[in-house]
Design goal:
137 residues, mainly alpha, 6 helices
Length: 137
């Protein structure tokens, strides 16, 4: 259960840092801005598989959102761009690949976070959407 707490804290921290950076870089003028993102995992809620899929998926989508917002000036509908990033994640084959790799890692290493943590980080690095979408599109 400790692994889940650590992973959730890491996931929330990455989301917070990513969103703060996106909002700061994008010069959004609103004092309060709420973004909504659908679940990125179909696995059993709060299982290790779900937490890893949701955490890595969110990290990849937010990284791609930042990439898509580069060079945009003026009023930006960040929610619309986020929706595009989520759709790209869900339809490009990256989501399926991430879920498959996470499942294989968990099958091989069980709940051993010492082995899983670097594997999860490597999955996120390998599936970085801004790089993968540029190569494919």
């Amino acid at each position: 259960m400790v692994w889940m707490i650590h992973f959730c804290i890491l996931h929330l921290f990455l989301m917070h840092v990513s969103l703060c950076y996106i909002i700061q870089v994008s010069n959004i003028q609103q004092s309060m801005y709420t973004l909504e993102m659908p679940p990125l995992s179909d696995s059993v809620l709060y299982s290790m598989q779900y937490t890893a899929e949701q955490g890595i998926g969110t990290t990849l989508v937010l990284e791609y959102l930042y990439f898509l917002l580069q060079g945009k000036d003026g009023q930006i509908d960040v929610q619309a761009v986020l929706d595009l990033a989520v759709a790209a994640y869900q339809t490009s084959g990256i989501r399926e690949s991430v879920c498959k790799l996470i499942n294989e890692a968990i099958q091989q290493h069980g709940n051993d976070m010492e082995n899983l943590s670097p594997i999860f980080v490597q999955i996120a690095k390998d599936k970085q959407m801004s790089r993968n979408m540029q190569r494919n599109g």
